[in-house]
Amino acid sequence: MSRNISRALICIAAATVAVTATTGAASRPPTTDTTSPVALAVHALVTESAEVATLTIPDDFSTVMGYRPRVQDAMAENPTGGCSSPVPLPSEFDSACKAHDLGYDLIRYAAATGKAVDPGWRRSIDAQLESRMHAACVDRTSDGPRRMCDAAASVAATAVDINSWRQSFGAPVAEPALPIASVGVLVALMALSSTLIVRYRRRPVTVPESGERA
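Structure (tokenized):
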């Protein structure tokens, strides 16, 4: 691979990280609204323990949404959820994605039962996903794989932020495959960029012996 291509991929990676740094990570938990059970549940989901969060789920949630949330890996989650991506994401993200699905289902529940949806709910749930994905990468002890994991987390978080923006931070709905596939390409580029950076830093430097041409 030429140096120009390598540099281009690294620039794409850097730009993507810069976009991510100004989106979901800056979100704040929504203000607690004592008049809305969903607001209380979302607030608990992003600020309290999983056990406390599950206690705030509306009583008819399982009837409306078709499942009962569970606690797994210290997270309240949708047991049948998962990461939606056209390319494989690190397995460490699985629990974070299932928890994110529960958060989105709370918003869908609000819409399905005729309750107003606060855009702050989705922003907070997206920010929590990003934080948890990066936290999951810490368990990787090798520098290279950890960089690749963080790269995938950054691009996946950007994809989620863009999708939420497209939907005006309302109730989540299915999106066409093209925008998602485009972000999937960025994920692959980010992972490849991280690999190139690691290889470049670890490449041995050859010093010519005395008398040899450099």
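Residues 32 and 40 are 6 Å apart (CA to CA). Confidence is low (pLDDT under 50) at residues 1-28, 196-201.
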